[in-house]
Amino acid sequence: MPPTATRRPSLTEGPIARTLLTFSLPILGANVLQSLNGSINMVWIGHFLGESALTASANANLLLFLLLGLVFGISMANTLMVGQAVGAGDIDQAKRVVGTSVGFFVALSAIVAALGYAFAPEILAAMRTPPDALPLAVAYLRIIFLALPSMYLYNFLMMTLRGAGDSHTPFLFMLISVGLDIGLNPLFIFGIGPFPKLGIAGSATATLIAQTTALLALLAWLYRRKHFLCLHRGELHYLKPDFAILRALVLKGLPMGMQMVVISTSALVMISLVNAYGSQTTAAYGAALQLWTYVQMPALAIGSAVSSMAAQNVGAQRWDRVGRIAAIGLGYSLLLVGTLVAIIYLFNHGALALFLPRDGEAITIAQHINAIVVWSYLFFGLGFVLFGVIRSTGAVMPPLVILAIALWCVRVPFAWLLHGHFGANAVWWSFPLGSLTMLLLAAVYYRWGGWRKARLLAHPPRTGMASAPVGAAAPSES
Q1: Which InterPro entries does UniProt cross-reference here (predicted)?
Q2: Which of 185, 346, 387, 429 sits at 20 to 30 Å (Cα–Cα) from 255?
Q3: What is the share, in percent, of the chain residues with pLDDT greater than 90?
Q4: Alpha helical stretches, state H, 225-316
Q5: For the whole model, what pTM was predicted?
């Protein structure tokens, strides 16, 4: 008999506003930690190992971003399925999802790691990595590929816990992972004390150790606390793939992962347009992008929290709460993103001076860019919250289509076709226009679309709530 599980966290009861806020803040903290970790690692490499090493890590990290994006959507599909099952009180179904997902991520990560390690030189050469940076990039990337299984499984566990209603534990173990990575970087790069001097490979080694240690510590903690989703000796049959779940993971996960591809490819086009205006404008745009990364973080965190919370309530057939979760999520996004937007407008010059010389031409251009673009992140935040609610039922294609329309049918064409008439301002104004389009389309689909009738699985989890039988119809929300 498995040990008695600890009490399950519930997102289907209690005050929505307080629960959503306390659930969102650890996700926001984890996002900030990840960005901070990447920035600090780049500082070590760029300042102490030179431009070739920085170029090597930039090329390798671009590939890593794509590899992590490959499984982001599948991790999100797992989160939603776990959330719906937990909300319905069907823990057997939740464990089936976890078991099938574990097998999938182990197999996928092993294949990608082995192929990536073997063909790292060819992959980087195909990316046209500069010759002086190629040997450094190969050494760095091969260790990153060794770390990939730990990265995939660690990310999967964190997303699973969020689906089960726990965002605090992932944040605490993210602290461990980031703390180790930051602390070990200089030790392995420079060979301090008993540590070998590995140069740029030392940065990747620090990531490998940090991710693996955090993964093992998280697993030990979950089993020590007898988490209700842990699989024990008598439950190993859950690891046998459930092909209905596996099919849903892929078919529902790929559209969510494709959103990252849509964003990345449109960003490449935008930077190519910006580059045409010279290095000062490109530097200004790069500095503004650094600030925008942090401005959008609350929206991303609230959108993720809303998705997990709505999924549990969809599973419990608590449709009255789903509508209120959406409304409160919109309010929080407006408040938090609006606060950061206001701070940037108040301290525009000082914030940009963190990345640019105070008296140069670039900082003047960057201030102009911010004046046009930053407020549009209010639209982005509201749209992302609506996406989170829409996805919670399994309606994953509409957000992808809406995002593609906003970026590839509005933002990119506007910037491309009109930059000859309005110069760089056409590029800057394409951001508010694209974000507004995304919000309006998301709002229309949320109000009148068929997302409430969507399903993650052909046979949804069995609800344990007597007051809300499985066959209960999803009401149309006003």
Answers
A1: MATE_fam, MdtK-like, Membrane_Transporter-Flippase
A2: 429
A3: 62
A4: 243-275, 279-295, 297-315
A5: 0.86
